[in-house]
Specification:
With 300 residues, the chain is of the alpha/beta class. It has three domains: 4-83 and 261-282, Rossmann fold (3-Layer(aba) Sandwich), CATH 3.40.50.10800; 86-167, Rossmann fold, CATH 3.40.50.10800; 175-250, NadA-like (Rossmann fold). The chain is 46% helix and 15% strand. The strands form three sheets. Strands 2-1-3-4 form a four-stranded parallel beta sheet, with helices on both faces. Strands 6-5-7-8 form a four-stranded parallel beta sheet, with helices on both faces. A four-stranded parallel beta sheet has the order 10-9-11-12, sandwiched between helices.
Amino acid sequence: MKPIEAQIRELKEERGAVIIAHNYQVDEVQAIADFTGDSLELSRKASQIPEEVVVFCGVHFMAETAAVLSPEKTILIPDPNAGCPMADMVTADAVRKLKAEHPGAKVVCYVNSSAEVKAESDICCTSSNAVKVAESLGDVEIIFVPDRNLGAFVAERLGRDLILYNGFCPTHERIRDVDVLAMKEKYPEALVLAHPECNKPVRNLADELLSTGQMCRFAQISDAKEFLIATELGLNYRLQTENPDKKFYSVNPDRAVCPNMKKITLEKILWSLQDRQYRITVPEEIARRAVGAIERMLEL
C-alpha cells in the first residue's frame, strides 16, 4: 500500500482540491498542506485560489469564516469536533445583550468567533490588526469580544478603556510568567515572542507581542538566533522550517498545546477527501451579515 501522504496527494489531484493548514496543526499536517498560515490568511487564500474544494485543517470557526468568504466553494473540515473553547464562550445573544446595555457602542469581534457572533458585530479584527481596527472607530465606546486578553492588549496600546467580554483561550492562559522566566534563565540571549492572547504577566515579559503570522515574519528578519515562543506549540514547526539556522523554544511545550488543533490527522484528511466530508455551510442571512463585519475590517 502507498504511504498515506502519497494517497492524499493523488486523491487531492483527483478531487481538484487544495489543503490548507493553520500554524497550530501537527507537523505532518502542516508538511502536507499546500498553504499554512493564521486563520484569516487561510480564509482569504481559500477565496483567491481557483480550486473549488478546500480541505481546511483548523478549528470550526476558521472553516466557517472560509465558507462565509467563499460561499460558492466546498469547504471541508476533516474533524467536525475540532472546536474552539474561546469561540464557544460567546454567543450572539450575549452580544445582543451587551449592545442593549451600551447603546451607541461599536462591537469589535475577534475573528476567533462564530459566524452568528460576527453577524452581530460592527467589525472584525485579527490579533495582528486589532489595535488598528479599534483605533479606526474613533472615540466611540467599544465592546470587544470574546478575548479579554487581546482586548486588554488593545486597551493598553490605545491608552483607553474598552468593554471586555470575559472570554479567553485556554491554551494561552496555561502559559505562565514563571514558564517564561525559567526559559529566559536557560536561554538568556533569546528574544521572547508572545501572542497577545497571553495573560498580562506573560505579555509584560515579552520582547515582542505578535500574531503567529507576525512572529514568522519577525523571525526571518531579526538578527537574533534564539527565540522563546509563547504561543501554541505547533507554530515552532513552521518557525524552525523557515529558519533552519535559528533556534526556537516553546516556553512550556507540555502546556502550550491546543487539543482541538491536534484532532486533525493525516488519516482524517484522507477520509475527508474520499467522502467529501465534513462540509461547512452557513445560513445565507447570517453569512451576509457576518461577511459585512469581515469586509469592513479588510477595507482598512
